[in-house]
Amino acid sequence: MFILNPHSSVPIYQQLVDQVRRLVAGGQLVPGAELPSVREMAHEHTVHPMTISKAYSLLESEGILERHRGKPMRVAALRRNQSGVAARLKQIEPQLEALALSARQLELSSDDIVAQLRKKLGEKP
Amino acid sequence: MFILNPHSSVPIYQQLVDQVRRLVAGGQLVPGAELPSVREMAHEHTVHPMTISKAYSLLESEGILERHRGKPMRVAALRRNQSGVAARLKQIEPQLEALALSARQLELSSDDIVAQLRKKLGEKP
Amino acid sequence: MFILNPHSSVPIYQQLVDQVRRLVAGGQLVPGAELPSVREMAHEHTVHPMTISKAYSLLESEGILERHRGKPMRVAALRRNQSGVAARLKQIEPQLEALALSARQLELSSDDIVAQLRKKLGEKP
Amino acid sequence: MFILNPHSSVPIYQQLVDQVRRLVAGGQLVPGAELPSVREMAHEHTVHPMTISKAYSLLESEGILERHRGKPMRVAALRRNQSGVAARLKQIEPQLEALALSARQLELSSDDIVAQLRKKLGEKP
DNA sequence: GTGGTCTAGACCACA
DNA sequence: GTGGTCTAGACCACA
Q1: pLDDT of D82-121, one tens digit each?
Q2: Is residue D36 part of a domain?
Q3: Given an 8 Å threshold on Cβ–Cβ distance, is B68 in contact with D6?
Q4: In 3-state terms, what secondary structure has residue B79?
Q5: Are residues B41 and B64 in the same domain?
Q6: CA B52 → C1' E15, Å?
Q7: CA C22 to CA C16: how far, in whole Å?
Q8: Residue A42 belongs to what domain range?
Q9: Closest residue to A96, CB basis, from B88, B93, B116
Q10: Pick from A8, A33, C75, D72: CA 20 to 30 A from residue B5's CA?
């Protein structure tokens, strides 16, 4: 369910945080759903447990996950308006802005960029 | 001409590398053009000369800039097919893929994403 | 294992890059082998850590070393045909050409040069 | 007669010094022979006159060239035993030692190295 | 004038 | 523990 790439320049804990956040916002992870334990997850991805732990803690402090003694982490109840299209678009705004900047500096036309983006959106990961 | 943000999480030297790379690919910096000297650039952005120097060295090792002893760095001759639309699209492919992944996980429709992207592309930076 | 001479006109970081490159090509450093940490190496040779770091970074960008967050640098897997005799001879080709040029200009006979070279090759460093 | 490569990592003045030294030792430049003027040489190789001047001055201080007011630089009379085989071999000793070190670290056999060197010695430049 | 190297030393991110 | 970034500042080589 989770894809962690140790060779990426994005820190592993960050990759995990980003994915959980988006899966929750996207509805693939619903409130109450349980996440793999730190140990399980660490073992499966051969990653240091502290790395998973850090990601979970961040998600907890964001109110996205909930910790209950003795139980696995769970997806928290959604706050109001957290899952509307606007809220989700807001989440990728920084990515969109960075992309737009790159496109301008590369003097790529909007149509070329959009065509390429649609291609990527159509592909399965 | 260059925008360096010391508060960004992207290292300063990396910001400069990215911008020069894109300005060259985009044609705003043509082969033979001289870049500001290390000291000039450092002074203008109140940044340590070594930070600029590191960026220039990386760009030299990529073959984008050329060093000529005693002279400022210059934009190198382009390698064949380096500046076609395809090559430039290739440069932002990682960004496009990351965006597509985010969009899928957020269950955002292609049309919503594209509409938002076009808005950003239309804005002046 | 490494010999760094601070009085040489060859920059310290360059000496290290050259040696690692050759030890890897020669097989004394095998893929997966860990290098001394930046701090260790710096302390042992009483050199600034950044100097070692610079060498390691260059070797990483050449694909000779691999960085794994939180761990010491490691020798990367060899690219195909990277370690054959031909590939290794290729590495000293510039040195051979410079030597041949000198010999010609000094009007030294091939036999004199070769005899002298064999003597040096026989000596322990 | 002289080959100056501005892209080499060896400084231009040094390239010139090395070549003159070897051409004199090799007998291609005999005592009394005149060298091109600083201006001429600088113009021919599109190099800064100061660069040529620096090389000539170094050669003069070594006693290889002589300056006579109003005349071009001339090759000085040879000092005793300056042109014997042993003296000339001495001049390339540092190069031979560097080569031997590289060969050892690359674990190249003496025979492979020598074969390759003979090939280079046989080629015209 | 140009860029390069190096040290001292602070501070950070990651595992 | 690991490596990375950055500054302050000295000193050098080259043109």
Answers
A1: 668 888 898 888 889 889 988 988 889 999 999 999 999 9
A2: yes
A3: yes
A4: coil
A5: yes
A6: 30
A7: 10
A8: 12-75
A9: B116
A10: A8
